């Protein structure tokens, strides 16, 4: 998936804003991700990557209340590439 000016706002219990389970996702400038009860950006799997890049004129934002537990009760950890 690739997107610019993406807005995601989720409020459900343990709902993640964007979750990538494999491959690479690129979220470009002027994107805003918000998760009231889950992770803002979450990757699952060793080959999952999120590129999250804004610009000086079109900044990105992430709001996250925390990372969601996986099926084993462990917390998922994400790889972030954040550029403004």
Short description:
By secondary structure, the chain is mainly β. 0% of the residues lie in helices and 42% in strands.
Low-confidence stretches: 71-84
Tally of helical runs: 0
Quote the average pLDDT: 81
Q: Which descriptor suits the 3D outline?
A: flat
Beta-strand residue percentage: 35-45%
Protein name: Outer membrane autotransporter/adhesion protein
Organism: Escherichia coli
Tags for this entry?
flat; four-stranded parallel beta sheet; 42% strand
Verbal overview:
- With 84 residues, this protein is mostly beta strands.
- It has one domain.
- It is 0% helix and 42% strand.
- It is built from no helices and 9 strands.
- It has strands at 2-3, 7-10, 18-20, 23-27, 32-35, 41-43, 48-53, 61-64, 80-83.
- The strands form 3 sheets. It has a 4-stranded parallel sheet with strand order 1-4-7-9, with no helix packed on it. A 3-stranded parallel sheet has the order 2-5-8, with no helix packed on it. A two-stranded parallel sheet has the order 3-6.
- It is flat.
- The two termini are 20 Å apart.
- Mean pLDDT is 81; it is low at 71-84.
- This is Outer membrane autotransporter/adhesion protein.
Fold topology:
Layout: E1 2-3, E2 7-10, E3 18-20, E4 23-27, E5 32-35, E6 41-43, E7 48-53, E8 61-64, E9 80-83
Parallel strand pairs: 1-4, 2-5, 3-6, 4-7, 5-8, 7-9
Protein name: Outer membrane autotransporter/adhesion protein
Organism: Escherichia coli
């Amino acid at each position: 998936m690739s997107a610019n000016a993406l807005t995601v706002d989720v409020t459900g219990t343990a709902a993640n804003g964007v979750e990538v389970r494999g491959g690479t996702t690129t979220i470009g400038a002027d994107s805003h991700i918000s998760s009231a009860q889950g992770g803002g950006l979450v990757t699952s799997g060793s080959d999952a990557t999120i590129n999250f890049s804004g610009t000086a004129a079109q900044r990105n934002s992430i709001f996250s209340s925390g990372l969601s537990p996986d099926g084993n009760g462990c917390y998922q950890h994400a790889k972030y590439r954040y550029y403004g």
